[in-house]
Amino acid sequence: MTSPPPPAKPTPPPTPAALKLSAPQRAPADKRWCEKVTVEFRNTGGTPARSGTITFATHIIGALGVDWATIRSSQPLPAPIAAGATRSQTYTVCLESWRVPLGMRVETQDVSAVWE
Known about the structure:
Shape: rod-shaped
Distance between the termini: 52 Å
Number of strands: 7
Radius of gyration: 21 Å
Largest sheet: 4 strands, antiparallel
Strand content: over 45%
Helix content: under 10%
Structural class: mainly beta
Number of helices: 0
């Protein structure tokens, strides 16, 4: 007499999306109050990141290197980002021109994201 096979172990549910962001790679844009910022998104989770928002912390830097202010702005993520996938996106990040007087520049130094 043979014994029945052991019950199969249930497969665990996939882990939620987990995005890791690279440091922002900056490049000049056509206006002094804008810059092009490239960010790489790596989804280390088990499900796709279906939507979300990236937030940029853009610093206004004076002619002598003084950091005058940090302005936050947001744009949509390049979703969906599949589980295990890496995706790169270049954003044009601009502040209002009056915030960046002649002789000053912008630097997007930090990025963060929220996703579903």
